[in-house]
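Hi there,

I know you've been waiting on this one. I reran it after we fixed the sequence typo, so this is the corrected version. Both the input and the resulting structure follow.
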Amino acid sequence: MDRVNTSRWTGLSITIILVILWGSSLGWLLQSKHLPWFATVLGILGHTFLQTGLFVLAHDAMHVNLVPHQRTLNHSIGRCLILLYAGLSYDRCCENHYKHHRIPGQASDPDFHTEGDSNPFHWYVKFMQEYLSLSQLARLFMGLSICMLCLGVSITTLTHLLLFELLPLWLSSLQLFWFGTYLPHRHPPLNQPHQARSSDYPVWLSFLTCYHFGYHWEHHEYPRTPWYQLPDRRPQHIDNLKPLSKHFTNIGCP
């Protein structure tokens, strides 16, 4: 096992706390009136960070790192989290992520762009095309419509949905793409099976940028390690750990 010893309920506890923070902040922001500009900016940035957290936790569920001793519960929570994030299909995300771990940096890798073209805009468009679908957009539209009906149809409500739900969702996708896909896989090291490199940020900055997704080689090498323990897999901490590259294809998806 490459999972660092921890409480079996740590992932679930973090999930409960984050979902409460995400839901309460969204509810407060959508109902707020006459916020000063700096509070609006802080609200957008804060909710973007929490929005990204939903995806990171769903990603942990794909690896059975969320509730490792309860596989069915683990994947059920993952489905709920990815729906809350953007109405995405958990099965499709699992399938794409499984491919990404099996064949990183190759033409069939859904998270990789054409070799030789590292243009971030082209890569981002291709990245989004792999996960967006008509059914996903329909679920997202339905969720926004329900919010609109609950809050009352008005220009103010529409503006708040754009500022505090759609804008943070878009910024979150950029955050995940930039720190979790583009930078790690843009210029992969030669003769390295994961085709990934890690950021060299201190732990606090790694957390703020994208919940340690920048420690990307560590994630590929130790896929059964939850996001909050990836700093413990950094080279300065793993002198006595056995490399597990041969296990990287088994990420735990249903």
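Quick highlight: The CA atoms of residues 52 and 172 lie 5 Å apart.

Best,
R. S.
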